[in-house]
């Protein structure tokens, strides 16, 4: 269902592009843009791609490869044939790609649009979110959601502790098959305050404690690998709880009417944004300027519940394009949702991902 | 044509003088006067070249798509270019270090220069990633240092300068790792693939138990593949027998039923099994409906070993049935009748007369299914959950997600070696010449 709408949109976009191509064929280009697919690519299509194609006659091709973006960039660079023009990736991957020279450094103030009131990008984007090669678009959040029909009305879960509480909240859980987020949640559920989680994980004792906590629910966990799996498993009632990206749960709840509820307690939030593969800057700089301006980022929030990465856009966030509901309460950064939120520590994971993933995989196999 | 010049002459040798034969050799020629021998060898050479030209495209294809990638994979599993090229000065300076305490000032100065240059070319990330495989935290140590030395002048005391940036430079551990990984070739990836590592003294030791993963996976992959092969044989043998022995009209229909799933997309067949076996799926629903199990007691048949075994047995079944069928088709039914007429019981006739004749088919189907299943990865990835994963899933994981291609290559090389050894063993026991693929 969702896929067919996406296909239709892409097809419609392509038709529009072809139609405009006929009139402005002179310097129309084809841009290969890599992103995450599903509801997220859809929101980019509506907010950035379609207005851009209408404006310039360029054709934009969506490639759903962000899950393996770093591997793809490495392989294409090694083969000497980079076909991607713009890539949507996580800031931690962008740091690695940047240090390996796979992507272009970006002078943010020179290349990006100022806010409508003239604030330069370096001050308008969320503090600390701009790194050497990275232009953020959104703030998204890793949360645990549940199917409200799986629990009695007077006993709905509302904290991250409940996910680890099999006695009061029985049922299967689905969690991402990576140590990221799960380790943080395990410690938070074990009583570690959010701001001490990463200090704790730096120690062997903290890691052992996180695994011990995960051990308590291990038998009840189905591990997912694709972002589309948890909403599906929740909808099929295969699981009671599922960790997911908040936008996917929003999409399922609002657009598909699923009885899903998000536990905002203990959310782990992070950024997501654009990087430009080495040598592609000239080709995509106009698009990049357009797609990251204040209005475009605010527009994206009409389609998916991810917070815009610009302060000036946050004020413009309005209502959902199709259902007309107010978007603000669904944003990870909305006051009440943000009370016990943990910013993902990219530096910690850059250092420890290899070792902890290995240990996590070994733990899974035991 | 060899002239016999010595040796005993057979008694019935024609009475001809030897001198005559040397003086006037009878040369047979073709119509245009070329000696027959020359003409024949020319003809043979021409047809040889023709045959070679016909094979050439396949040969080139095999070299490009098979031999070269395997060679590339093998070399990648020991290739270690990052440290020697990116930290070339450091590698030269650290060579003579005895490993006691901290390395001398010259090494620190060389490291300063290497990291500064790498930071300016934006190539330092590669070595940071490489060293992080060996020592967690090396990435941020290198990257933090790179940010700090990028625009710095060479300090008078590089040792103090680096340790001031990050105290980890004052820990001999990182220097031991650099010294160990300074060769252009490394065994680290193979060690990691066999759940081993270097300890602080540079000796090879087993990893702690909570980090061990791959050896168990290799073993699991092998025994599950064997089990799947056995199950396909168990299910496929009677089907192949029916196919070969039923009247044409019925056996054709049966053949279509075997082939139809074979022509269906692998992904469709795999996801169908998910729909059937999942705990809210068709099979569980039916069992609950007829009261076989309670609603709370739904069986977990997918996302575990059971799921992998069921789905893969189904998917690989045609590879067993078809070679068996082609062999059974050639066995004349009169043999069995003859055995029966001579007083053998049904079972005895089957065991002594029919079964031995199908061994070639069992051998072919067995090795086909086994080798296919050992390398399968999509189906275990989709239905295997945790306990039903194969080692191949980790090769894919290290190719696509962790990007540790050296480790992926090492695991794949070990798997390749295991398959080659098993094949040789199989050849010894069954004999590849005895197989019949149809």
Automatic annotation (TrEMBL), chain A:
PANTHER family: ABC TRANSPORTER SUBSTRATE-BINDING PROTEIN, SPERMIDINE/PUTRESCINE-BINDING PERIPLASMIC PROTEIN
Keywords assigned: Signal
Protein name listed in UniProt: Spermidine/putrescine-binding periplasmic protein
SUPFAM superfamilies: Periplasmic binding protein-like II (SSF53850)
One Pfam short name: SBP_bac_8
UniProt signal peptide: 1-28
InterPro entries on file: SBP
Protein's organism: Caenispirillum salinarum AK4
Gene3D superfamilies in the cross-refs: Periplasmic binding protein-like II
TrEMBL record, chain B:
Keywords carried by this UniProt record: Cell membrane, Membrane, Transmembrane, Transmembrane helix, Transport
Residues of the ABC transmembrane type-1 domain: 218-426
Tagged with keyword Lipid metabolism: no
Localization annotation: Cell membrane
Superkingdom classification of source: Bacteria
Biological process (GO), any one: transmembrane transport
Name under which the protein is recorded: Spermidine Putrescine ABC transporter permease component PotB
Organism in which the protein naturally occurs: Caenispirillum salinarum AK4
């Amino acid at each position: 269902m969702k896929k067919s709408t996406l296909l239709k949109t892409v097809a419609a976009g392509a038709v529009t592009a072809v139609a405009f191509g006929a009139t402005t064929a002179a310097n129309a280009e084809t841009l290969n843009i890599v992103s995450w697919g599903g509801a997220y690519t859809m929101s980019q299509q509506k907010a950035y791609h379609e207005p851009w194609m209408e404006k310039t006659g360029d054709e934009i091709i969506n490639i759903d490869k962000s899950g393996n973006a770093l591997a793809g960039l490495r392989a294409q660079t090694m083969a000497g044939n980079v076909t991607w023009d713009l890539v949507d990736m996580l800031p931690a991957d962008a740091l690695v790609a940047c240090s390996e020279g796979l992507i272009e450094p970006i002078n943010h103030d020179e290349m990006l649009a100022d806010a409508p009131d003239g604030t330069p990008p370096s001050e308008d984007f969320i503090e600390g979110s701009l790194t050497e090669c990275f232009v953020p678009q959104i703030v998204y959040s890793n949360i645990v959601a549940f199917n409200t029909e799986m629990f009695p009305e007077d006993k709905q879960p509302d904290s991250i502790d409940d996910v680890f509480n099999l006695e009061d909240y029985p049922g299967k859980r689905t969690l991402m098959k990576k140590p990221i987020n799960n380790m943080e949640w395990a410690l938070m559920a074990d009583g570690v305050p959010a701001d001490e989680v990463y200090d704790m994980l730096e120690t062997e004792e903290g890691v052992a404690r996180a695994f011990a906590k995960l051990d308590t629910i291990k038998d009840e966990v189905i591990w997912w690998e694709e972002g589309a799996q948890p909403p599906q498993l929740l909808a099929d009632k295969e699981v009671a709880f599922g960790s997911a990206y908040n936008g996917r749960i929003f999409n399922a709840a609002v657009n598909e009417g699923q009885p899903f509820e998000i536990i905002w307690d203990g959310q782990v939030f992070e950024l997501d944004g654009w990087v430009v593969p080495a040598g592609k800057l000239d080709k995509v700089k106009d698009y990049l300027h357009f797609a990251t301006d204040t209005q475009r980022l605010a527009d994206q929030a009409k389609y998916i519940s991810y917070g815009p990465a610009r302060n000036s856009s946050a004020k413009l966030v309005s209502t959902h394009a199709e259902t007309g509901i107010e978007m603000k309460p669904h944003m990870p950064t909305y006051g009440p949702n943000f009370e016990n939120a943990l910013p993902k520590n990219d530096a910690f994971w850059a250092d420890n991902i290899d070792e902890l993933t290995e240990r996590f995989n070994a733990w899974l196999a035991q | 044509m060899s002239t016999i010049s010595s040796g005993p002459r057979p008694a019935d040798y024609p009475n001809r003088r030897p001198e005559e034969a040397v003086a006037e050799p009878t040369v047979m020629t073709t119509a245009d006067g070329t000696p027959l021998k020359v003409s024949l060898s020319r003809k043979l050479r021409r047809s040889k070249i023709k045959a070679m030209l016909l094979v050439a495209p396949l040969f080139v294809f095999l070299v490009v798509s098979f031999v070269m990638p395997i060679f590339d994979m093998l070399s990648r599993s020991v290739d270690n270019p990052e440290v020697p090229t990116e930290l070339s000065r450091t590698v030269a300076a650290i060579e003579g270090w005895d490993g006691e305490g901290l390395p001398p000032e010259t090494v620190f100065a060389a490291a300063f220069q290497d990291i500064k240059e790498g930071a300016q070319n934006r190539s330092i990330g590669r070595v940071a990633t490489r060293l992080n495989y060996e020592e967690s935290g090396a990435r941020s140590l290198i990257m933090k240092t790179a940010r700090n030395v990028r625009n710095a002048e060479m300090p008078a005391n590089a040792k103090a300068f680096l340790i001031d940036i990050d105290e980890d430079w004052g820990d001999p551990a990182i220097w031991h790792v650099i010294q160990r990984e300074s060769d252009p070739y490394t065994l680290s990836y193979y060690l990691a693939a066999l759940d081993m590592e270097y300890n602080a003294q540079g000796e090879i030791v087993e990893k702690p138990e909570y980090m061990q993963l791959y050896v168990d996976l290799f073993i699991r992959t092998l025994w599950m593949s064997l089990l799947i092969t056995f199950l396909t044989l168990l299910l496929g043998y009677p089907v192949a027998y029916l196919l070969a022995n039923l009247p044409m009209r019925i056996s054709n229909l049966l053949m279509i039923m075997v082939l139809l799933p074979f022509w269906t997309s692998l992904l469709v067949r795999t996801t169908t099994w998910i729909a059937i076996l999942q705990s809210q799926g068709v099979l569980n629903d039916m069992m609950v409906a007829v009261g076989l199990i309670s609603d709370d007691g739904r069986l977990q048949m997918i996302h575990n070993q059971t799921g992998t075994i069921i789905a893969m047995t189904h998917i690989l079944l045609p590879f067993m049935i078809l070679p068996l069928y082609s062999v059974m088709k050639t066995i004349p039914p009169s043999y069995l009748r003859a055995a029966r007429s001579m007083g053998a019981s049904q079972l005895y006739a089957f065991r002594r007369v029919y079964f031995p004749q199908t061994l070639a088919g069992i051998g072919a189907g067995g090795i086909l299914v086994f080798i296919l299943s050992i390398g399968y990865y999509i189906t275990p990835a989709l239905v295997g959950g945790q306990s039903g994963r194969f080692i191949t899933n980790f090769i894919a994981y290290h190719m696509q997600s962790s990007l540790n291609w050296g480790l992926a290559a090492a695991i794949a090389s070990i798997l390749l070696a295991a398959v080659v050894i098993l094949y040789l063993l199989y050849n010894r026991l069954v004999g590849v010449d005895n197989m019949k693929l149809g």
